[in-house]
């Protein structure tokens, strides 16, 4: 069973790389996504260590960074609101 999953993973990875290489727009999209990812991580890092919002610290993990990448500033508000409600 593990062999089937590994073959499926490798085949889908090769096909994904093929699609990205054949389409020039994909490189632009990947570069833009990478810049947004770095910017979101930097904003969260600066927010945590600047002390702008006392008593709150947003963890730097894939879920929080992904939320901020997709939603932008409202994503930071969402993460802080969830942290306030849940903890």
Tell me the number of strands. 0
Q: Over the alpha carbons, how many angstroms does the gyration radius reach? A: 18 Å
Describe the main β-sheet briefly.
none
Helix segment count?
4
Low-confidence spans: pLDDT under 50, at least 5 residues?
none
Gross morphology: elongated
Q: State the order of secondary-structure elements, H for helix, E for strand.
A: HHHH
Characterization of the model:
This protein is mainly alpha-helical and 87 residues long. It has a domain at 27-86. The protein is built from four helices and no strands. Helix 1 packs across helix 2, helix 2 (24-50) crosses helix 3 and helix 3 crosses helix 4 (73-86).
């Amino acid at each position: 069973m593990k062999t089937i999953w590994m073959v499926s993973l490798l085949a889908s990875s090769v096909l994904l790389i093929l699609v990205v290489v054949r389409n020039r727009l994909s490189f632009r999209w990947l570069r833009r996504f990478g810049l947004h990812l770095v910017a979101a991580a930097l904003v969260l890092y600066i927010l945590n260590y600047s002390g702008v919002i006392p008593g709150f610290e947003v963890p730097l993990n894939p879920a929080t960074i992904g939320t901020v990448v997709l939603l932008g500033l409202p994503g930071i508000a969402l993460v802080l609101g969830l942290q306030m409600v849940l903890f």
